[in-house]
């Protein structure tokens, strides 16, 4: 997988390659799946990507993921309380799907293990997109379970669905497939968390069919000693909308990839993200968005707070195909840097092949506005509290423009928790 | 209540001296007007009283109830009862107005060793104060001052002042940007706060505001010094003859 062949594999690479032979017999899948897993393993044998690979320039995976834990969990994992009270919780605990509860009308739930066994997963989904697709390859080789959700045409789910990928140490590799049928409407929450030293990977395939509307909330709250590799892929049909909200607050090493194809005319993608980075976190959000049809709209806004020795990355690539005239794309990445030892790298990339489009991007790195701080303190609010209010305000702006009051309140409560711990 | 003695202060960044030996004394119960031409140091004085660290006091003393406030940070001064109504109140996106009010009121109560206000009591007080200033509660659902007109911002400052019940109110050009109706409402708000244990420092460029908030004393500030003091008639004289005469007489 490395540009330059590695003569010797790192400890982590060796553990992954050797782990495969011992894990293999426990992993679900028909003969086709086995072929895909073997192919993914071949990629891993070439080593993990380094900073010499452009897509990994700010996240040298080979160096940062130098060791991986054993596959076995340390203890039993338990589902966590849902973000929204009435959500249908579908947990994957230590790599095994446990949800059996009946869902709302219009929703069909299957486990990914069953689908792998049936050979239902399209072959290309278990194939790394290129030889540097480390997240795809690791997940393809080791994926054990997850959920497959079908939302019927025209169904409007009356309660949110919460997918949980929870570990208790060790390694978990999960996958979620969600097909939102034409004209359907759903709110889906994805939780990535656990306890202890872990390597967690998760790949999502979301298909938003014509006229469907999906609001997806991804909460990555890994413990401080866990590595998390995520890949969210979505395809948008005609006049469909997808709002993806990502909250990253935790993890030692985090790479969240977002790959979206606006393939239907008039489709709209909104990406909103908040990265709360503290301690020694390295958190990388890498987005590739393809505008493949005319009149597609996208907006991407990230707000980042960096404290301690944390390091953040946002790579946002927007590609506008020649046919995708009248594309309107706006990307912004704003960082509040509260520590001299922390850092944030932002790399916007626009590749535009159409000639009638409006595309823009902007990135800022700031400290707290002294004027604002003075104003709050002049009202008797002590400096620490005033700073806390302003930091929260900086990220709350992104949350408050979401349209669901319940979600806004729940997310703001997460912010308060994080600031209580890191403020 | 407030005693400023031979105050010298400069802009911290470039050392420009703005306040050059200012003396001023304001008693409890008094409404004192500070007037002066542009650039005389009026706003600087208000910021220094509130504790903004863009300015450095190089000499002199500010005593509030007999004690120096120079070592206190803005929050401590506010908790001690000093309130600055800003000339340009800041818009702070993302900070909900109600949350801000609750945090500020309770921070001050806590600093004074009082019990925190419960939400229903807080809401009641806010509603009463907002009614008196003819502000809608809907406005207070917005982020702090965001999207408020100039006049609405000034009213919001007075609202905060009513709720925080300070002992020394400093109003920095509160009349600027107000139409006559808003000016009356704001002035009524200030007048309602007049009391024997509270002092008000009205900083203004024009006499107009003083028709509505009638001062006990008027002080003319020029080049960082009080060059003349008098009663309310001094303001009328300035309105009629401009600052030139007073300045020439002092020179």
Would you kindly provide a written description of the structure presented here, covering whatever features stand out?
The complex is a heterodimer of chains A (423) and B (251). With 423 residues, chain A is an alpha/beta fold. Chain A is 22% helix and 39% strand. In chain A, helix 7 packs antiparallel against helix 8. Chain A is globular and about 70 Å long. The longest helix of chain B is centred in the middle third of the chain and has 15 residues. The mean pLDDT of chain B is 92. The chains are: A alpha/beta (423), B alpha/beta (251). Chains A and B meet through helix 6 and helix 7 of A and helix 2 and helix 3 of B.
Question: What tags apply to this protein structure?
Answer:
heterodimer; A: alpha/beta; nine-stranded mixed beta sheet; 19 strands; 22% helix; B: 251 residues; alpha/beta; four-stranded antiparallel beta sheet; 9 helices; globular
Q: What characteristic shape of chain A results from the CA principal axes?
A: globular
Structural class determined from secondary elements of chain B: alpha/beta
- Parts with pLDDT < 50 across at least 5 consecutive residues of chain B: none
Instruction: Give the DSSP E fraction of chain B (strand runs of 2 or more residues).
Output: 25-35%
Distance between the termini of chain A: 40 Å
The helix fraction of chain B, in percent, is: 25-40%
Radius of gyration of chain B: 18 Å
Tell me the major beta sheet of chain B.
6 strands, mixed
User: What would the average pLDDT of chain B be, to the nearest integer?
Assistant: 92
Give the beta-strand count of chain A: 19
> What is the overall pLDDT average of chain A?
94
Large-scale geometry of chain B: globular
Give the helix tally of chain B: 9
Helical fraction of chain A equals 10-25%
Strand content of chain A: 35-45%
Measured by residues with Cβ under 8 Å of the partner chain's Cβ, the largest interface is: A-B, 23 and 29 residues
Strands ordered across the widest β-sheet of chain A? 2-1-5-7-9-11-13-15-17-19
Question: Could you tell me the number of beta strands of chain B?
Answer: 10
- Rounded to an integer, what's the Rg of chain A over CA atoms? 21 Å
- Which strand order does the major sheet of chain B show? 6-7-8-3-9-10
């Amino acid at each position: 997988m490395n540009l330059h062949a590695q003569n010797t594999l790192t400890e982590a690479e060796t553990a992954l390659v050797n782990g495969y032979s011992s894990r293999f017999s426990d992993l679900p899948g028909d003969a086709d799946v086995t072929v895909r897993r073997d192919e993914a393993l071949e990629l891993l044998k070439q080593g993990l990507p380094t900073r010499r690979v452009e897509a990994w320039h700010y996240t040298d995976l080979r160096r940062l993921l130098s060791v991986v834990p054993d596959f076995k969990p340390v203890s039993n994992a338990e589902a966590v309380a849902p973000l929204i009270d009435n959500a249908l919780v579908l947990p994957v605990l230590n790599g095994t799907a446990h949800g059996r509860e009946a869902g709302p009308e219009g929703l069909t739930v299957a486990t990914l293990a069953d689908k792998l066994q049936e050979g239902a997963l399209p072959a290309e989904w278990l194939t790394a997109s290129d030889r540097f697709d480390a997240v795809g390859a690791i997940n393809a080789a080791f994926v054990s379970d997850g959920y497959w959700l079908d939302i019927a045409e025209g169904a409007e789910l009356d309660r949110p669905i919460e997918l949980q990928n929870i570990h208790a140490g060790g390694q978990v590799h999960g996958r979620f497939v969600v097909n939102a049928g034409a004209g359907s409407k759903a709110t889906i929450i994805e939780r990535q968390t656990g306890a202890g030293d872990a390597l967690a990977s998760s790949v999502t395939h979301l298909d938003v069919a014509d006229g469907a509307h999906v609001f997806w909330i991804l909460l990555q709250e890994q413990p401080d000693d866990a590595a998390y590799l995520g890949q969210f892929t979505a395809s948008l049909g005609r006049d469909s909308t997808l709002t993806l909200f990502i909250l990253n607050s935790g993890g030692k090493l985090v790479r969240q990839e977002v790959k979206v194809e606006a393939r239907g005319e008039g489709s709209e993608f909104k990406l909103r993200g908040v990265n709360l980075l503290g301690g020694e976190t390295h958190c990388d959000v890498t987005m590739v968005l393809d505008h493949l049809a005319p009149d597609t709209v996208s907006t991407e806004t990230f707000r980042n707070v960096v404290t301690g020795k944390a390091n953040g990355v946002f790579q946002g690539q927007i590609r506008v195909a020649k046919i995708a005239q009248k594309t309107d794309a706006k990307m912004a990445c704003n960082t509040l840097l509260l520590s001299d030892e922390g850092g944030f790298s932002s790399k916007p990339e626009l590749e535009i092949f159409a000639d009638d489009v409006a595309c823009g991007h902007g990135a800022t790195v700031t400290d707290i506005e002294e004027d604002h701080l003075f104003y709050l303190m002049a009202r008797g609010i002590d400096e620490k509290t005033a700073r806390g209010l302003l930091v929260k305000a900086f990220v709350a702006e992104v949350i408050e423009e979401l349209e669901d009051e319940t979600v806004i309140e729940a997310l703001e409560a997460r912010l308060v928790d994080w600031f209580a711990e890191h403020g | 209540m407030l005693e400023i003695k031979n105050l010298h202060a400069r802009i911290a960044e470039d050392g420009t001296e703005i306040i050059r030996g200012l003396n001023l004394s304001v008693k409890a119960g008094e409404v004192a007007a500070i007037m002066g031409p542009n650039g005389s140091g009026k706003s600087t004085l208000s910021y220094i009283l509130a504790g903004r660290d863009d300015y450095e006091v190089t000499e002199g003393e500010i005593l509030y109830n007999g004690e120096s406030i120079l070592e206190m940070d803005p929050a401590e001064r506010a908790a001690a009862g000093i309130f600055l109504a800003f000339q340009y109140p800041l818009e702070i996106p993302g900070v909900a107005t109600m949350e801000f009010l609750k945090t500020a009121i309770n921070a001050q109560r806590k600093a004074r060793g009082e019990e925190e206000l419960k939400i229903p009591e807080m809401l009641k007080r806010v509603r009463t104060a907002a009614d008196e200033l003819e502000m809608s509660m809907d406005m207070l659902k917005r982020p702090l001052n965001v999207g408020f007109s100039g006049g609405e911002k000034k009213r919001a400052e007075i609202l905060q002042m009513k709720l925080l019940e300070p002992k020394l109110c400093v109003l920095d050009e509160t009349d600027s940007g107000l139409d006559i109706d808003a000016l009356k409402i704001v002035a009524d708000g200030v007048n309602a706060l007049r009391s024997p244990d509270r002092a008000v420092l009205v900083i203004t460029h024009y006499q107009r505001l003083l028709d509505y908030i009638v001062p006990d004393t008027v002080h003319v500030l020029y080049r960082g010094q009080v060059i003349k003091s008098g009663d309310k008639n001094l303001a009328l004289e300035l309105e009629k003859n401009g600052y030139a005469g007073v300045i020439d007489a002092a020179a």
